[in-house]
Structures are given as C-alpha cells and as structure tokens.
Amino acid sequence: MPAYHSAFNDPKTPLLCNAAFLPIKTTVKGPAPPAGRDDVDIIDEAIGFFKANVFFRTFDIKGPGDRILIYLTLYIQQCLSRLEKAKNRGEADRLLNTLALEKFPTPADSSFALPGIYTCSPGEEEKFRQYYTQLRLEVGLRMVALVFKDDQPNKWWMCFSKRKFLNKNL
C-alpha cells in the first residue's frame, strides 16, 4: 500500500527551498499567505495523513507539497513525544509552544534531518525559518486541541508517540 501524498503537489505552486510555499489557516503571525477558513491546508492534510503515513519507512516525493508533508509528519511525531510529559492541556500548550520556538536546523545547516529533500539558496534561509516556525506554532496549537480534548491525553494519538516516520527524527 503506498503512502498518502499531498494534494498540494501542483508544479505551479510557489517554492521556498524546493518545497511548496502554501497558505495556511492561522492566527500566528508569519510570512504564510492566509487560507480561507473552510479550505483544507497543508497542516490539516499532515494531521489527517499522520496515522497512516507514520508506518512507512520510505516515501516517494511526488511534488513540492510532499516535502512539507514529510517535515510536518516528522514534526507531529516530535510533538507527540513531547506531549508524553504533559499532564494537562495548559502544560501541553506550554511544551509545544516552547518546542516550536526552539532554534531548529534549516536546509543550509549540516544537522538538518532531510538534507537531500530541501535545497536552499542563501537568500531563502531566513524566510524558511520564519515560515516553518509559523507552521510549527500552528501545528502545536492544533495538536493540543486534538490530543487534549478532555484535559487528558487521547490514547489513540499518544500510542503513536514512539513511532518513527522514515526512521528519522527532527
């Protein structure tokens, strides 16, 4: 069975470091263009495909949307690992906000987890950091809302905290 791929793999999509630069539904400030409230954005797609895609050890990239999907899948896995330490929703918000704002490697860094997938020109690195920080903050908000609906961690999400997508960590 093949992995689920992004619906945002249009070759005409604007690119940032060889990945799609897509609009997202968010209140977090950043460079991403706003998406409509009823539109499905890349974050909705990544969360929706996470439970199925996390079982795959390989992933064929079909376009620029898949590059973001891979990164967000790895980031969601990292969020779930952090949420294991949270006892309630308030603590979970704090943990994921801290995680999103931590300094993370960009494709220009040697410690970047996905070196062959992204290619950044020197002028794109700062915009990449801003856009992916915005994505990380929004993913954190949505994951807390999903995992801590009743102020207790949802076991059907937390059971995926030990899985590794593509045998990688961010």
Notable traits:
170 residues, mainly alpha, Arp2/3 complex 21 kDa subunit ARPC3, two-stranded antiparallel sheet, 2% strand
Instruction: Count the DSSP helices.
Output: 5
Spatially, the strands of the biggest sheet line up as: 1-2
Give, in order, the helices and strands.
EEHHHHH
Please report the distance between the alpha carbons of the first and last residues. Answer: 25 Å
What CATH architecture label applies? Answer: Orthogonal Bundle
Count of structural domains: 1
Task: State the share of residues found in helices, binned by percent.
Answer: 40-55%
Main beta sheet, described? 2 strands, antiparallel
The total of beta strands comes to: 2
The CATH homologous superfamily is named: Actin-related protein 2/3 complex subunit 3
Task: State Rg.
Answer: 15 Å
Low-pLDDT segments: none
Shape: globular
Calculate the mean pLDDT score and round it.
91
- Backbone structural class: mainly alpha
Q: Can you tell me the CATH topology?
A: Arp2/3 complex 21 kDa subunit ARPC3
Q: What's the CATH C level?
A: Mainly Alpha
Strand content: under 5%
Describe what you observe in this structure.
Functions as component of the Arp2/3 complex which is involved in regulation of actin polymerization and together with an activating nucleation-promoting factor (NPF) mediates the formation of branched actin networks. This is Actin-related protein 2/3 complex subunit 3. It is found in: Cytoplasm, Cytoskeleton. The chain has 170 residues and is mainly alpha-helical. It has helices at 42-53, 64-83, 89-101, 125-147, 155-158; strands at 15-16, 19-20. It starts with 14 loop residues before the first strand and ends in a 12-residue tail after the last helix. Helix content is 42%, strand content 2%. Helix 2 packs across helix 4 (125-147) and helix 3 runs antiparallel to helix 4. The radius of gyration is 15 Å and the shape is globular. It has a single domain (15-167), classed as Arp2/3 complex 21 kDa subunit ARPC3 (Orthogonal Bundle), CATH 1.10.1760.10.
